[in-house]
Amino acid sequence: MQKTQLIFIPSPGLSHLTSTVEMAKLLLARDQRLSIIVLIMKLPNDRNVDNYITGLSSSDSNPTSRLCFKQLPNEDLDSSNPKPGWLFNFIHGQAVHVREIVSGLLKGETSGGDAPRLAGLVLDMFCTNFIDVANGFGLPSYVFYTSGACCLGVFSELVSLKFEHGQEPWKLINSVTELSIPCFSRPVPSKVLPAVLLTDNPMANIFFTYFERFKEAKGIMVNTVHELESYAIESLSHGKIPKVYPVGPLVNLGSNQASEKYDEIMKWLDDQPDSSVVFLCFGSMGSFEEIQVKEIALALERSGHRFLWSIRKPGPKGAAQFPTEYEDFQQVLPEGFLGRTEGVGKVIGWAPQVAVLSHSAVGGFVSHCGWNSTLESLWFGVPMATFPLYAEQQLNAFELVKELGMAVEIRIDYHKKFNPEEGDKQEIVAADVIEAAIRRLMSEDSDGGVRQKVKEMQKISRLALMEGGSSYKAIDRFINDVIQNIS
């Protein structure tokens, strides 16, 4: 039996790494011929990645020696004074190290023994520059796309507008234009497109260059379920991008390490009635300025619903740093809020999101609409209220609310400004808007049958990964194609 090896290269950061590892686990469980190396690019001060890898190494769910991790050398990076394009310069700087690793593996093949045959590189959406490395060794490249099919279709359409039709997407900024995009059954407002792509600056061009290279790959694995995004997946099959494999949902069910905070949070949830708690959590980069925190607090207090709220302290302005923990929540919350809501709500910093969403007490999720969080919410059958912040989250929110009817809208077009220019104020979502959405989210029927649709998708998404399911079959097709492409 010919042993086969793949190299996965996720972009820096925990959210892309966790999806990559879950994808690797599924492939290894499906075919004993496979082994996988995950190359890790770690940003300075990102302890989340270290903790995650440590947790994997000590976990019973870690799949054997056929999955290994190699941390690429740390490059010099001043995260306190980032320059435009710093992240992509960081990624590009790793090319020499990736090339050395690939060369070493190929030399191991030719030296005899039972070394597996290297079958190609599986690249994150922001790592397509490494296609050049693969081409240099005559190896196939694949893309692992950590967002959904609708998002992939939108990026493909914007790339086509720019490079094939000579239209500059930045001209859509602040436009009321609605676009006809094949992966959506309804027009898409330009205001929900990723803001970074609608700018007339070098950063947008860098993104477009990365996305344009998708067409050079042999195939694209997408972290989605065919039944969830069937309209988009069918449209992609008739487009100009490589073969698409819908292989999700990839949910990291074993990510929570026991700790004093973890135990305290779970004990509090154990004391709450079923489906009574609204959970508020905004991802690894999710944080708000004090004025917005106070509006959310007012909304929660007025709603009367039980709540578990993860609040993170914003990093320094202009610095590429993750949110941190507050030493005292009273410095950001309205005066007397904690006392008035004692017994009804709990304010926390770090949140074990998967464990919380899986708890029977949780009945709703106010989310930033990151794709990982979206899939986790569907996996556990918890309806969402949309509060997007950055990246493609507005597009995800639009899809969930307007296209799929699986979420309640707080806002679908809110954009957080991470580096606002002088005099450019953050937009504030008012308490009454948030309160009304929470009430709709937590009602028995939810908003327009959202709760029922989410419960149905919970069953469908789990069946998709079981033998005979749509994602199970897609994974088989991918493995077979990988083997064929090197035979």
TrEMBL record:
<keyword id="KW-0328">Glycosyltransferase</keyword>
<dbReference type="InterPro" id="IPR050481">
    <property type="entry name" value="UDP-glycosyltransf_plant"/>
</dbReference>
<dbReference type="InterPro" id="IPR035595">
    <property type="entry name" value="UDP_glycos_trans_CS"/>
</dbReference>
<dbReference type="InterPro" id="IPR002213">
    <property type="entry name" value="UDP_glucos_trans"/>
</dbReference>
<dbReference type="Pfam" id="PF00201">
    <property type="entry name" value="UDPGT"/>
</dbReference>
<dbReference type="GO" id="GO:0035251">
    <property type="term" value="F:UDP-glucosyltransferase activity"/>
</dbReference>
<keyword id="KW-0808">Transferase</keyword>
<comment type="similarity">
    <text>Belongs to the UDP-glycosyltransferase family.</text>
</comment>
<protein>
    <recommendedName>
        <fullName>Glycosyltransferase</fullName>
        <ecNumber>2.4.1.-</ecNumber>
    </recommendedName>
</protein>
